[in-house]
Write a structure and sequence with these properties.
Blueprint (H helix, E strand, L loop, with lengths): L14 H10 L3 H13 L9 H13 L3 H13 L6 H13 L3 H9 L10 H13 L3 H13 L6 H11 L6 H10 L9 H13 L3 H13 L6 H13 L3 H13 L6 H13 L3 H13 L6 H13 L3 H13 L6 H13 L3 H13 L9 H18 L1 H13 L6 H14 L2 H13 L6 H12 L2 H25 L4 H16 L2 H15 L1
Helix pairs in contact: 1-2, 1-3, 2-3, 3-4, 3-5, 5-6, 5-7, 6-7, 7-8, 7-9, 9-10, 9-11, 10-11, 11-12, 11-13, 12-13, 13-14, 13-15, 14-15, 15-16, 15-17, 16-17, 17-18, 17-19, 18-19, 19-20, 19-21, 20-21, 21-22, 21-23, 23-24, 23-25, 24-25, 26-27, 26-28, 27-28
Length: 518
């Protein structure tokens, strides 16, 4: 693989020595050096065999070095080293782990090029990867090809097929039909089969059928696993049957089946959606006491439920607890808490959490961006009442970060600066408002123009223009008759001034015109 020799080997290098060194080294680059140097040390000495090749390929795919792993496959072929199915299986599983099902399928189709015929194990492994990555049409074609190649049905392969069919409402009946046919094909359903069907039925909202299958499962001595219980509990909670869900949780305890974090989180979700966040917090304490660490789903569920009920102090405590555990809240969670503070007009606290998000480098994704924009605008508008300077700083931060500002936010800021007497800043905001495509309303225009009108120099200059315009118009009306152009200007100034100017200015102009026209 092109690395320089860095290890001094003995003259009698053995496969066992190479394997031992490769297993002991954690760094993948150093592992590559060990592998390459073993054959580079002596020109006619050590040659890698199936054992060392297999181990090195396994280490490479574990570190996501897929190209190097496939190059070693080619090298094995060139050196006429025996290539067994277990090497391919490690590559399939590695591609499945990084969500690359098509690469797993590609390598599968190359097996015969390496004189390795795929067994039932390889077929089922690739089939399961395709189903797990929702490549359902491809998976079903692969299954048909598998049957055509003479691979007999087994409980494992039929379980994977049922899992694929359970993913869509339209194929759920087919999944149930295959389930009923399994005993006739010599493949009695096992706990995994029942669990897959129960999960599929619950996900589609068919809770009644799921409960019937659960009873049948127990009657046929198929012990439900924690996954099966969790699937049914989640389904019951989604259908708002919390009592049955809690009964199942108690049943698990009586049978010695330990609930996992997903079991607890499912019930917490049901409790929070039912307005029982206090009970959900009690369940959290029980969960932690049994040494189950909450995950992101658990914390998100609780924060959403607490914010929905207006229990912001408890929601903030859960957020802090989450951070202490080393979990990083996302923009959606912060958005819920900030919106909660905005709902009770605590805009200063809301702004503190916005600052915390920025300092923590937490950015929204495509789904939470619109919420992110909305809460920023709401916070600025709210801050304008009691904390206007902070409102303006947040506004500047929004512009810097490309967060769009709505017309109401501009209006709030302009009105504040007009009341403060800072007309230039108000006018600058109006300029930015127009450039952003927001049209100022009458109230905003009046606030800005009235502010300038109250300034002595502006007023005196405007009054000189006004006097000259009215005098010229009056003289023109005398010269050209009753309806001359001057008279028309006077009429427009008198009747339409209120449409274009602030009320007080318009009234003054109309009074002045009336006096001068007499």
């Amino acid at each position: 693989m092109g690395s320089k020799t860095m290890i001094k080997w003995s003259k009698q290098i053995t496969s066992a020595q190479v394997v031992q060194l490769i297993k002991a080294e954690r760094d993948i680059q150093k592992t590559i050096v060990i592998f390459d140097s073993a054959t580079a040390e002596y020109a006619n000495g050590f040659r890698h065999d199936h054992q060392t090749f297999s181990l090195m390929i396994s280490r490479l795919v574990s570190a996501n070095h897929f190209r190097s792993a496939e190059e070693l496959l080619c090298r094995m072929k060139e050196e006429k080293c025996n290539i067994t199915e277990d090497i391919f299986l490690s590559i399939f599983r590695a591609y499945g782990r990084v969500h690359k099902p098509l690469d797993a399928l590609r390598v599968f189709h190359k097996m015969k090029d390496y004189q390795c015929d795929p067994s039932q194990k390889s077929y089922i492994t690739v089939f399961a990867i395709l189903v797990g990555e929702n490549q359902l049409n491809l998976a079903l074609r692969f299954y048909r090809n598998m049957r055509e190649m003479g691979i007999p049905p087994s409980v494992t392969s039929l379980n994977v097929l049922i899992k694929a069919l359970c993913k869509n409402r339209g194929t759920m009946d087919a999944a149930l039909w295959i389930f009923r046919e399994m005993p006739n094909r010599g493949c009695p359903p096992d706990s995994y089969t029942y669990g897959t069907l129960i999960n599929g039925l619950c996900r589609l909202g068919n809770i009644g059928e799921a409960k019937e299958l659960f009873k049948e499962m127990e009657a046929k001595a198929c012990s439900p696993t924690v996954v099966t219980y969790t699937s049914l509990i989640r389904g019951l909670c989604q259908s708002k049957d919390l009592d049955s869900a809690i009964n199942l949780l108690e049943e698990m305890a009586s049978k010695g089946i330990e609930p996992n974090v997903f079991t607890y989180s499912s019930i917490m979700d049901g409790l929070c959606k039912g307005g029982c966040s206090s009970q959900a917090l009690e369940l959290l304490d029980m969960m932690v006491s049994r040494r189950h660490l909450p995950n992101m789903i658990t914390y998100s569920t609780l924060i959403h439920g607490l914010c929905k009920e207006g229990k912001l102090q408890e929601a903030v405590e859960i957020l802090d607890r989450m951070k202490l555990q080393g979990l990083r809240p996302d923009a959606g969670l912060y958005g819920k808490i900030i919106s909660g503070f905005c709902d009770i007009c605590k805009f200063h606290e809301a702004a503190n959490f916005l600052d915390e998000m920025v300092l923590g480098g937490i950015s929204p994704n495509r789904l939470t961006w619109s919420l992110h924009v909305r809460i920023h605008n709401i916070v600025v508008q709210g801050l304008c009442t009691e904390h206007p300077n902070r409102a303006f700083q947040l506004y500047l931060s929004m512009r810097t970060r490309g967060i769009s500002i709505d017309a109401k936010t501009f209006d709030s800021l302009v009105n504040y600066f007009c009341k403060k007497g800072d007309q230039h800043k108000a006018a600058h905001l109006v300029d930015e408002m127009v450039l952003d495509g927001c049209i100022p309303d009458e109230v905003t225009w009046n606030a800005v123009v009235s502010g300038f009108w109250d300034r002595r120099k502006v007023r005196e200059a405007a009054e000189l223009v006004q006097v000259e315009l009215i005098d010229n118009a009056r003289e023109s009306s005398v010269e050209h008759g009753k309806m001359g152009p001057g008279k028309q200007i006077l009429q427009v100034l008198e009747t339409d001034a209120s449409l274009y100017l602030p009320p007080r200015m318009a009234l003054e102009i109309q009074q002045d015109i009336h006096v001068r026209a007499q």
